[in-house]
């Protein structure tokens, strides 16, 4: 019985590693990690001068002793807002780290991005962005066991694994570019859409010395669409759609959030955020949070809806995001775009 449990654990780990390569990093609250979705989002925060944020995600804790944990911090700022009458530049950066598996597979990434935002008339905005990222991945092979090390009773780590490890670390640079188009139809309606491509340069990513297999990272194409609709002085509806694909693997997330103004003054200084999303063939994602004086805290829980729920009791993941938007002191903000706000 122990033999089969260990063999199953090994198979699960191999599949787990394959999923890490296929899915890449992702958050259910992708809209609270805008620089990762599309570099054209850098500096796209018309009402404010800067944003800083953080994300934390933990998943598969119920079926693995080594759950997948992802952490991200990011920030961006607007530049040259006064110099350009109908445009501005955004610069920003992000740092991520995730740890997973019994082999302590650790990925650390750093990105620097820049975007240009150009008004088209009084109602439209076109944005284009670019980023460069550095990735470092490490694994501890001494913590892993392989089928060649099974001696009939247990996995004997003294037996050579026979795996062609060339190194326990991989480093590479990656490139990403994207464009966005936004339409500010009125003070009550705002629509935006964009597309980006990451890993344009197809960097090589492998811990092994076998060169017969293509180990270059495939480009990742990401598309999103957002819409904000102000119903009245108390309610705003935010609808979102996200589609990302790497080769034959894809991720689709759609849903929305309701914003409710709870402030006594009716100025939006205190807002309740509540909604739900659905990741196709994977999970239902309820979400709740607050926005207090432009400090937003949101929490979501991924309830597994796929066949994996038979093994994890529908416990998929939880995620927390924090975003702070602000203005520089002593500086009057020149807001060039209308927006849906309280």
What's this model, at a glance?
By secondary structure, the protein is mainly beta. Helices cover 9% and strands 51% of the residues.
Large-scale geometry: globular
Order of helices and strands: HHEEEEEEEEEEEEEHE
Q: Give the CATH superfamily.
A: monomeric porin ompg
Calculate Rg over CA atoms.
Answer: 22 Å
What helical percentage do the residues reach? under 10%
Describe this structure as you would to a colleague.
There is one protein chain. The protein is mostly beta strands and 342 residues long. The protein has a single domain (2-326), classed as Porin. 9% of the residues lie in helices and 51% in strands. The chain has helices at 2-23, 34-37, 309-312; strands spanning 50-59, 68-79, 87-100, 105-120, 124-138, 169-186, 189-198, 220-230, 235-246, 249-261, 270-279, 283-292, 295-304, 315-326. The chain has a 14-stranded antiparallel beta barrel. A hairpin with a 2-residue loop joins strand 9 and strand 10 (249-261). It is globular and about 70 Å long. It starts with a helix and ends in a 16-residue tail after the last strand.
